[in-house]
Amino acid sequence: MISRVLVPMDDSEMAVRALEYALEAHPDAEITVLHIVGEPSAMMGKAVGLALEENIEEAAEKHAAEIFERAREIAQSHGVDISTKVVWGSPAKAIVKQSDSFDTVVIGSHGGSLADQLFVGNVAQTVFRRSPVPVTVVR
Question: Which parts of the sequence belong to the UspA domain (predicted)?
Answer without folding.
Answer: 1-139
